[in-house]
Model the fold of this input.
Amino acid sequence: MKTVPAKEKIKSIEELEKIVEEARKKGKTIVTTNGCFDILHIGHVRYLQDAAKLGDLMIVGINGDASVRKLKGKNRPVVPEGERAEVVASLGCVDYVFIFNEDDPVVFAGRLKPHFHAKGGDYSEKKMIEREIVEKHGGKIIILKEEKGYSTSSTIKKINERGDKNDA
Done:
C-alpha cells in the first residue's frame, strides 16, 4: 500500500473548499477537527483515528503559532506550525491538514461546512464556539471519548522535571 507524502496532504483553505465540494458531489461525508497538536502523543493519535471513523474525508485544522501562543502561553508552541502540520498529515487516518491563524475554528467551519466536527472529550458541546456555525450548515458536533492521562502540557512538565538527569 502506497501512502501519500505528508507534505502533499497540507493544503490551503481555498484548496480544501474545492476538495470538499468535489467530495460532497460524490456523496462523501466530511469530518473536521482542530487543535494545536504541539507535541503529538497517543491521546492525539487515538482521538484522530476515532474522528476519522465518522466519515470519508478527515480534515484537520492546525492552530497557527500565534494562535497557540494566545491559547497556551508565551512558551508555546514547542514545535513550529509547519512541522506540526506535517507530523499530523503523516498519520494514515488524516486526509488533509491546513493551518489556520484565527483564534478559533468558526471561520474554517463556516467555509468547509463539515457533516461532523469532532473534538476530544475534554470539551463540552455547549462551550464550543464553532457549534452554531456547524449546525447552521446542517452539521453535527461530536464529542469523542477523552484519553485521560495524555496531554502536551503534562509531557512538557515531565520533561522539565527530569531536567538533564536522563541525558545520555
Summary: DSSP finds seven helices and five strands in the chain. Strands lie at 30-35, 57-63, 96-100, 116-119, 140-143.
